[in-house]
Amino acid sequence: MTRRQELLLGLLGAAGAFGICEAVARAGIVRRSYLPPASEVLARAVRLAGDPAFVDGIGVTLRAWALGLGLACAVAVPLGLLLGAVPVAEAAVRAVIEFLRPLPSVALIPLVSLLLGSGTQTEVTLIAYASLWPVLFNTVYGLGETDPLARETLRAFGFGRLAVLLRVELPATAPFIAAGVRISAAVALILAVATEILSGFGQGLGIFIAQAQTETDGTRDVLAGVVWAGGLGLVINGVLVGAERRLFAWAQEPRPEAEKLQRSRP
Predict the structure, then answer these.
(1) Sign of CA pseudo-dihedral 8, 12, 14, 15
(2) pLDDT tens digits along 223-251
(3) Which architecture, in CATH terms, is 56-249?
(4) Which of 89, 150, 204, 262 could cross-link 60 (Cys pair, CB 3.0–4.6 Å)?
């Protein structure tokens, strides 16, 4: 399937979902106070782009998202390389990692707020904690998938451990790291908005949604905020996917064995 076909199918799916929501609301199957017509929600979302306070809130959310994701990558990539390269270290911290990984970041809001106070520090910390795991495990997995022949060839020519890491292991692991960053980017945006909604402090897209919930007829604003959150996630994912395709096109090329298998099929 070509990229143009993927884009066309995506637009058709979005148009279908839009039409269903519009028809359900217009037909009165669901009360408008619960589900306004999709056209009204979309129009409200477009008008919000001209609201300076709302745009500033989007900037606050994106800043926390970027800081949390950057902090997670700065910790996860070196730690993943260490754990993947040193089995003893991985075995030593495995129990701690498996204990911390299932803990939901949202459940840590009261504890982190108590330690760091109510502000950007709390939001960034929670985002970084949730975003850490996909990058960490993708780094460890990618390092384990490095071609052992290339690694041993460099060692046979007298290259040291650091040179092998920089010349072979890190380039081979880079596509896995990029995939982990893309997954973590979505997780970070979810945590950025959810933390703002649940904590109820500061500015941001989540604060806009939380405040709209308290209004008498705020369902339209809530859904408009959700549209903005989904749109931001779609744009971020698209940018990262495009960057992956450009930077790691060699990793997406089919292997000779796969090409032979495809040609042999009827």
Answers:
(1) positive
(2) 999 999 999 999 999 999 988 888 887 76
(3) Orthogonal Bundle (1.10)
(4) 204
